[in-house]
Structure formats: C-alpha cells, structure tokens
Specification:
The complex is a heterodimer of chains A (290) and B (295). Chain A is mainly α and 290 residues long. Chain A has two domains: 59 residues, no CATH class; 213 residues, MetI-like fold, CATH 1.10.3720.10. Chain A has a two-stranded antiparallel ribbon. In chain A, strand 1 and strand 2 form a beta hairpin. The longest helix of chain A is centred in the N-terminal third of the chain and has 41 residues. Chain B is mainly alpha-helical and 295 residues long. Chain B has a single domain, classed as MetI-like (MetI-like fold). The chains are: A mainly alpha (290), B mainly alpha (295). At the A-B interface, strand 2, helix 1, helix 2, helix 3 and helix 4 of A face helix 1, helix 3, helix 4, helix 5 and helix 6 of B.
Chain lengths: 290, 295
C-alpha cells in the first residue's frame, strides 16, 4: 500500500509505509505478533476443526485435536436446521442494503454539494441517530410497526433502512464534500440541472463509496440481533436469531452449533476477505474521524 | 448560490430521510421518555402519569445495582484492553515488518462477524465444566500444563462479566488497531527523523511525540468503545443467555418490557441508556464537526 491517499471520515490519512524507524532485533517483533495470531485464530480453529469432524469423533475432551478424516455431518445437520433462516437473512439484507445506500447517496449529495437553508443543521440531526442505544426507541418501534401493520421481514427491512440512513449519509457526504466545487459549477455552466449533475457527474464516480456503504450495511444488517429478535417471529427469523436459539437449545449438540456459527459467519467473512480494503474504510468512517 | 427552484428540489430530495429520521429517532425517543413516566404495565398502553416513580424504583432495585456494577466492570476491562492491545498491535505493524498486510487482515477479521457468532464460539471455549469434563480453553491450559489458568470464566461469582469482556476484546481490538494504524500513518516521517537527529530514543519518541499526537484517536476509540459497552447485549445473550449474574441494563430493559410487560420500567432503562450515551456522544460530535472546519 504505498502512497495511497484515502479520505476517511472527516480527515485525510495518508496510508503509506514509513521507513522502519529502528532495526534492533526486528525479528523479535514477530514473537508478540505470532502470540496474538494464535489468540485471534483460536476460536476460528475450534469452529472449523469441529465442523469438519465426523460425528464419531465428536467429544469435548478431544476438541483441540485435528480430525482424523474430514466429514461434513455437522455442516449438513446445521444447514438443515438453519437453511430457512439463511434464506430469510438474504431476503431481508439485500433490499435493506440497497435502499439505505441509495438514500444515503442522495442525502450526501444534497448535504455536501447542493445545500438548502438549514442543511448544516440537518447533518448532525441525522448523524446523532447513528449512536443512540436502540433500547431507547424499541417500545415505540414495536408499537408503530403494529399500528401500521408491518411485521416480519418487511418490518425488519424498514428498521434497517431507516436506522442505516445516518451512516450511509455520513459516508457519502464526506466523499462528495471532498470533491472540488468546480466540478459542479462546470456542469451547471454547461446547462446541467441538479438531477443532471447528480446523475451524470457524481453518480459515476461514486462507485467506490457505494461499495463501502453496501458492504457496511450488508454486514451490519446481517449481523444484527436486537431488531431481528424483536420484530420477527419464528418463521422469519434471520440467521443471528436462529443461531442463538440453536445454541440455547439442549437438543442440538455443540459440534453442530459450531458448524452453524461458521455458516452464519461465512457471507460476511467472504465479503471481508475479498473486499477488505473497502470494509476497512467503512469501519473508519463509522468513527467519524478516525 | 443556488436558485430558489434548486433549493426547493434539494429539500424535497432529502425530506423522506429527514422525516423518517425525525419520526424513528426523535419522536420515538420522546415517546419512549413519555412511557418511562407512565405506569404502563401489561399489554394495553396506559399513559397515567407517575412522574419519576419508575426511575426511583430502578435506583432502589438490587438487580439494577448489579447491572450498573457489571457495566462498569465490563467497560473498564473492555475499553482498557481494546485500547492497549489495539495500540500495541498498531505500533508493531507500523515497524515495516514483512507480512504486515497478513497480520492486519487477520487481526481485523472478527469485526466482520456478529457478536452472536462470537458468543456461540466463546461459550464453548469458556466452558466452566470441571474434572473429567474439562473442555475448551481450560482443557487447552491443562494440555499445556498451565493448570493455574483454569478458571470458571463467565460463571465466576461477581466477576463473570470480565470473561465476556475478554470475548469482546477479541472482537473489537482489531478495530482499535485500525484506528491507531491510520493515525500512525498520518504522522509525517520528518517528525520522527527530526526527533532522532535531536538524539531522542525510540521510547522517548513514542512517549513525547507520537502518543500525544494520537490523543484524538485515543479519544475517538474511548468514545466508540465506551458507547458500545453501554449497549452490550447480543454477546452476553449468546454466551450465557439471560442469567442474573451477567445482567446488564440492555438485557434488563428487554426482559422488563418484552418478557415481563413492565413497559414503564423498560422505557426508563432505555432512557437512562440514552442519556449515558448522549453524555459521551454529543460533545464528541460537537467537537468533531467543529474541528472539521467544515464547509
């Protein structure tokens, strides 16, 4: 990563590798790094190793041993149990992610480049919603959903779209604010109106921001538990709720739970592995400043 | 400046979001606060005004005392642990070692998975069973002849919440590392070189130059981690279910409202959580938006 300039949050960070400032016994620095690697990998190791053991080898006493042969019993059992919930999660996450990203992009554009009177007040007004503990709005949320007749997955999508607006607006607004105002002015002199500027000038160069926001929203909606457990019933449980109930039940063995945990983590892990750079940017944007 | 027509249009474009945020955040907060001043209990809403009764009862409630104690312990361990670990990892990764990208990716990956997945796995790692049923980390310690490390984890009397904080550190220290790494990379190299020429040792450079420059990063990390620990909910549920010794305000709010139908009390807990988060967040937002020197 040399000399890349990222605009993250409100600040500008230069991501560049500095020349190492001291060289004394540098190889010793690997020791703490390797210890920490073990710390981070232990849960992953147990989850994977347990998942691939055939039922015959499952025993809490040998949970740290490698499997003698690879089996898929646990994954099959976990998948049979969790398949409806995985489907629910996808059905819920995809529209929730798309809609809140589009809203964020429009808001970001207006709040950065096409301001109306009071726009500077609107931004913090929206932003505050990013931090509130949802316990402080849960009761009205449930009452409201009931009153308007929304339940299950549509209710969950609505909640994720609306509570996603602050972070998506923040990310896009910061990106658009970093673009030179001349870009807009030039397009206007050429006769483009507001929607034209957005559609033909900003939208085409917003793809990286869209990737950041889509990943962020996908991950947070996929990983959400609180809204899901309150707004959905048995049939519409997304994966987090189904997994937690599976883990809490006495009937399903721990090895199947481990396989289930891996299935639940897989979609977001894949996103992270293949699009990690964008994931990191979303993460830093969430801290406002970094 | 914008023509009137354009201003009008731009306001129309953002108004759906503004209305949604206004209702789902601000109106709901007001509504919730109102419920907290009511004696609503049971399925039918009852807005009879009882002033601060729900709050008074909470502060006299032994369970809420446990909640506060657990939140304080969790916050101290989790915030201190994540910041220390995150800072040390960032400094290590900033030394230009080979394989830096690999380690960075690895330390950050828990951020991609949910607290529920983390909780389900750690619940088995922290299995407190003893004797022949020893398992999880305790079994590993026994294999490594580190028997003195064997402990009851989240079932330790009074301190069980500390074990949950450990799992939370596992999940969030990579994030703190990323914040610090971004901060370290924004420090101009000349600054370090100048200090080296002046004869400063590496420790001195960190103590007197780098750590002070990183103060805003530390502040951000403190506030973000702090507000996460006030809200902690899923992780505890996944590790231990709803057990009283590991109770926190978010769980008590949940049980009061949706299991016990004590809406008034649930709303009071929600409001107290909001106030404690707002005390952290509002000055932070104020400061960041101002210092951004925006627009």
């Amino acid at each position: 990563m040399n000399e890349k300039k990222y605009s993250i949050g409100f600040g500008n960070f230069k991501f560049s590798l500095p020349a190492p400032s001291f060289r004394l016994h540098k190889q010793w620095l690997y020791l703490p790094l390797i210890l920490m690697t073990i710390f981070y990998l232990l849960p992953m190791y147990v989850m994977l190793v347990t998942g691939f053991k055939p039922f015959a080898e499952i025993d809490l006493k040998t949970m740290w041993n490698l499997p003698t042969r690879i089996g898929f019993d646990n994954y099959i059992a976990a998948f049979q149990n969790l398949a409806p919930a995985l489907r629910n999660s996808f059905v819920m996450v995809i529209p929730a992610t798309l809609i809140s990203s589009i809203l964020g992009s429009i808001n970001g554009f207006v709040l950065a480049k096409w301001k109306f009177k009071g726009a500077d007040f609107i931004f913090p007004f929206i932003l505050f919603g990013m931090f509130i503990p949802y316990q402080s709005i849960l009761i009205p949320l449930v009452q409201f959903m009931r009153a308007v007749g929304l339940s299950g997955i549509p209710a969950l999508i609505t909640a994720h779209v609306i509570y996603g607006i602050p972070i998506t607006t923040l990310t896009f607004r910061n990106y658009y604010a970093s673009l030179p105002q001349e870009l807009i002015e030039a397009a206007r002199i050429d006769g483009a109106d507001m929607l034209g500027v957005y559609r033909y000038i900003l939208l085409p160069i917003s793809i990286p921001s869209f990737v950041v926001v889509l990943i962020w929203q996908f991950t947070s909606a996929w990983n959400d538990f609180l809204f899901a457990v309150i707004l959905t019933g048995n049939k519409d449980w997304p994966i987090t709720v189904a997994l937690n109930n599976m883990a809490g039940s006495q009937i399903i063995a721990w090895n199947v739970q481990m396989a289930g945990a891996f299935l639940a983590a897989l979609p977001t892990l894949l996103v992270y592995i293949f699009l990690g750079k964008y994931f990191l940017r979303g993460l830093l944007a969430g801290s406002l400043k970094g | 400046m914008l023509k009137n027509k354009d201003r009008y249009l731009s306001f129309i474009l953002v108004s759906p979001s503004i209305i949604a945020v206004f209702i789902f955040i601000y109106v709901f907060i007001g509504w919730s606060v109102r419920v907290s001043f009511s004696k609503w209990k049971g399925l039918t809403p009852d807005y009879t005004w009882v002033a601060l009764d729900n709050y008074k009862q909470l502060f006299a409630d032994p369970r809420f005392h446990v909640d506060i104690r657990n939140t304080v312990i969790f916050t101290l361990i989790f915030v201190f642990g994540s910041i220390t670990l995150g800072f040390l990892l960032a400094v290590l990764l900033d030394q230009g070692l080979k394989g830096e990208a690999f380690f960075r990716t690895l330390f950050l990956f828990p951020m991609a998975i949910s607290f529920i997945v983390t909780g389900v796995v750690w619940r088995w790692l922290m299995n407190p069973a003893e004797g022949t049923r020893l398992s999880g980390l305790n079994l590993l310690f026994s294999h490594l002849h580190l028997d003195f490390l064997i402990n009851d984890w989240h079932t330790t009397p009074n301190w069980g919440i500390a074990a949950v904080a450990l799992a939370a550190i596992w999940q969030m220290s990579g994030y703190t590392m990323a914040l610090y790494l971004a901060g370290l990379r924004s420090i101009p190299q000349e600054l370090r070189e100048a200090a080296q020429i002046d004869g400063a040792s590496e420790t001195q450079i960190y103590r007197h130059i780098i750590i002070p420059i990183l103060t805003p990063v530390t502040l951000s990390a403190l506030i973000i981690l702090g507000h996460i620990s006030l809200k902690v909910f899923d992780l505890i549920i996944a590790i231990a279910g709803k057990q009283l010794p590991l109770d926190v305000p978010a769980i008590y709010m949940w049980q009061s409202t949706f299991d016990g139908l004590f809406y008034g009390r649930g709303a009071a807990i929600g409001t107290l959580l909001l106030v404690s988060v707002a005390v952290l967040i509002i000055p932070y937002m104020w400061y960041t938006l101002k210092s951004e020197n925006q627009l």
